[in-house]
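Give me structure tokens for this 203-residue protein.
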Amino acid sequence: TLNAYRSTFDNNDAGYGGDSGNGSGGRGADGGAIYNSGGGFVWLQNVTLTRNDRGYGGAGTTGGLHGEGPEVFHNGSAMTLVFTTVWDNQSVGTLVSANGKTIVLRNSLLENSGQNCSLAYTGTYTDAGYNIESGVSCGLNAAGSLSSTPSGLNTTLQNNGGYVPTLALNPTSAAIDHLNNGVNVCGSGGITDDARGVARIGG
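Here you go.
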């Protein structure tokens, strides 16, 4: 079980598959930032996930297979992302939900080099509202959610106040004032602060 609050997962990788002198290279590992399996529960709130990568297959007579889920690989009991920023992670699919499992997205930003939500497995993605993604792979369809919309993030991970480095919003970001106070667990009656510990009055 992982409950992460006001945290940043930056520039991790899942591990190289290993070379073989005679045969196939080893398979790269899954889940560069988070790997959830078995009965595991994951809750991410006010979290930044950025510049993570999967493990790459090793060299050999036949190259090893690359791992999956450079950012997050989910094959556990439950996973929820709330007010979470998923940006500039490297590979085909950033979030991977496998074997009929579900990743719930709420009030989160997703903009990565490949698909934000991998469609290569049999998992699903639930839109709990007010998400913004740069593409269409997460199938956003709930109230307040936007697809094919740039995140409008300042791309420098830095100290913007608080205890961990974060990615600030540029003045033109669609995320600014996207939520009103009291809507979808934002502000009063819900999550009252952001990753910096600053009051989340609305937006």
